[in-house]
Amino acid sequence: MTIANNLSELIGNTPLVKLNHVTEGIKATIAVKVEYFNPGGSSKDRIAERIIDAAERSGELQPGGVIVEPTSGNTGVGLALVAQQRGYRTIFTLPDKVSESKRAVLRAYGAEIVVTPTDAGPDDPRSYYQVAERLAKTIPGGFRPNQYDNPNGPASHYATTGPEIWKATDGKVTHFVAGIGTGGTISGTGRYLKEVSDGKVKVIGSDPEGSIYSAPSMADVHQYDIEGVGEDFYPKAFDRTITDDIVKVNDHDAFLMTRRLASEEGLLVGGSSGMAVASAIEYARRNNLDENQLVVVLLPDSGRSYLEKIFNDDWMRAHGYGDIVEATTRPSLVA
Ligand code: PMP
């Protein structure tokens, strides 16, 4: 029988598929690892499971414990999913700019939500970071996963994502490309692929223009629209020694590729996925990668979380991306 005993068993082992259209003019094979096949819909299911396993083993998380984390997105879904299966409460703090639909998703999984003012900076006691810290310390049984510092984030990708890519490509992968948020994905997966290939696999980071990882100086760090990637500080989960190169992408090019992946490749994915593919193509072009190269790009989540933004033509036009709408939408036929 192939009936899974519970949803956690379905985390990982996501498929790889070759890109056939957006890669026009590129000789190398570009394959994407589609993480929306995870039960919670993103790569973050992997870290949630490992962080909770490790906290149970260390005793930081006891039966009936409460998981508290400042997160509005994929990490919250992953944690809520694993937590409900094991009888833990989850409390997520999030700034009031987070859309109602994202709040609804977390509540649907059984999480409790504390909404904080967006204009409260990280040092403000009302900020979602500080409220989470306070709740984790004062609630009996409180446990704070802290995905930016927790070594189990990268460890989960070292143990699962890396080996899956090596096996699925029969060890023929030559390049691995992933966006950098906490840095867990690229550091863990990249470390495994380098070790198993005797350093032959090149690891390429993808970063939004304005983020610290690809900014020439702190003066170049600024806001951007791509979600889930980039930072304005260096988290412990990111191991800078693993990446061979970082290719930055601006919001426009990331969103154009995100829309093209949906309309040309049938891949409805998020903006950080479009960004990663844009980086991979740019890297392949710059370095003249040939037919012998196999580039694997990780696509972290589904486009369903971005229907109100990247896939909403009005939002796109209002934010200066009107040309992308024109380039990727067929006219509606009104009878
Ligand atoms: N894309 C999305 C949509 C994400 O939520 C994240 C996680 N913040 C990433 C990419 C980057 O992954 P990581 O934190 O492992 O660097």
TrEMBL record:
Residue ranges of domain Tryptophan synthase beta chain-like PALP in the record: 8-301
Organism encoding this protein: Bifidobacterium goeldii
Similarity remark: Belongs to the cysteine synthase/cystathionine beta-synthase family.
Essential cofactor(s): pyridoxal 5'-phosphate
Matching SUPFAM superfamilies: Tryptophan synthase beta subunit-like PLP-dependent enzymes
Pfam families the UniProt entry points to: PALP
Keywords: Pyridoxal phosphate
UniProt KW DNA repair keyword: no
Domain of life: Bacteria
UniProt protein name: Cystathionine beta-synthase
Signal sequence coordinates: none
Gene Ontology biological process: cysteine metabolic process; serine family amino acid metabolic process; sulfur compound biosynthetic process
